[in-house]
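Page header: ASSEMBLY MODEL / two components / 579 residues total.
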Amino acid sequence: MNNEALKELLYKMADDQLILGHRNSEWTGFGPLLEEDIAFSSMAQDKVGHSLALYTILQELGEQDPDTVAFTRNAEQFHNSLLTELPNGEYDFSLIRHFLYDTAEALRFEMLTQSSFEPLAQLSAKIRGELRYHTMHANTWIKQLGSATTESITRLQKSLEYALPYALGMFEKSPFENALISEGIFAGEQVLEDKWKRKVEEVLAQTQLQLPAWDTITPHLGGRVGKHTEHLQPLLDEMSEVLRIDPTAEW
Amino acid sequence: MYGGGNTFEGIKSDELTGEDPVKLAEFEARIERGEKIEPSDWMPKLYRKQLIRMIEQHAHSEIIGALPEGTWITRAPGFKRKMALMAKVQDEVGHGQLLYSAAETLGKSREAMIDDLINGKSKYSNIFNYPTFTWADCCFISWLVDAGAIVNQLANAKGSYGPYCRALDRICAEESFHLKYGHHCVIYLASGTQKQRDMFQEALNRWWPPMMHFFGPSDKISVHTEILMKWKVKMGTNDDMRNQFLDMYVPKIWELGFTIPDPNLKKNTETGRWDYTEPDWEEFKRVINGDGPCNSERLEVRRIAEERGRWVREALRTAKTEYVTPLA
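Prediction written out in full:
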């Protein structure tokens, strides 16, 4: 099995989950209603937990331990998509991002249940079940707020248009795309992107939101090769603030 | 967390006039027999008022209390701490939700309670008006503030109002995990490097006075609450609660090799109670009346969150929805 290709896949998935989990956790104490504080915290816990599970597989493939990998790399060494690192902004953006991202993640893990790499297939079967609740949550809220008041529809529409180029960046192709496909590790970003578009269209059709034509959107790429926005490094600095006080200490 | 140290207003002599003496006697007899009062049961106006006040303060303490610890979620050192702290603070917000529902059974809506929090009419636990400068401050809260809250909540869970007691039973079960988590964090600081030990000692020095304040003013100066004790709204005196906390946790703090910043703190072998330097009650009053290090910041955060979330709540209200008071 092509380990390099496999590691690249695992890193980008783990980094996505960690960074968005971190962002979701920033809603704790600030949600538009208590129930949403709690929901975003649950999703944050799931996502950070998923990243830990993926980093643990990476460790078994010879990488460093999860704490070192997650808490000591700098922004250029992260492979998360740009979508996940953007600041939370207002609830409309956080909700749209959650919808666009989790729709893709649910499909990605669904596809990976068929992976020829057994540890990933097993993990994906478990994660798939949890992500079902994330997409259910996103879809419920998108349908409600996307059809409610003029303000809620306008806000969501604006955030949707802002987020879509970043969302397409999630499917930035890996240099190992062909190897992943031919070895049956992962069916590839193109297949995922197509499935994702159909799903997004299906949910948005049940709202008053307008989806721009796909060919008018230019994807924001770079995250998968370590080229990030100015928002990632401050997030990582904050995440490692306590650990850096004494990296040799146990906390 | 985070209940406890509730402040009670003095009761005016005319607040019980106008109650039906037969119903009042029956009500008091039920409480005396250990029965729970349920939302649809008859109750004196004063009982309702004081309970709303107490449960509401407790709920506010949960959501405001989520802020000083919540700010460390994004900085928690390592996966284990990060995941545990997220879950812990989420629990606290969940307790707030549960308690607002318990208070709503008495007829005040969550919106009205949150409005009163923001406009300063209703209080929350004073201890959250102090800042968490370091990770060790956050560990202090998780361990010892939660411990103090458990002392209060276990007592209150034996009170007379059914919905509040049931909420507290659930809350206490979760709190016991918080306490273990907090203690675990502090053990790591205590047995770690010199820098880590210093961090916790400094946190302890900062938090000890607010921790002593946590249980409320000394019985010698606090308002008379006999009727609330009789009705099992208030379940123990402030000094009893404080003493129980000292009994349980001072030995554990000493065991870890830390110094408590009160030279007079010792167990009095004759009385079986703890002697300590009376904390500065003037400061307590000052802080609870709004002039603490973080009062304005805490309320401002809450106000902004409410303001920014208004459009979401409005979008949830459709013509078909109407407000329903929970039953229990």
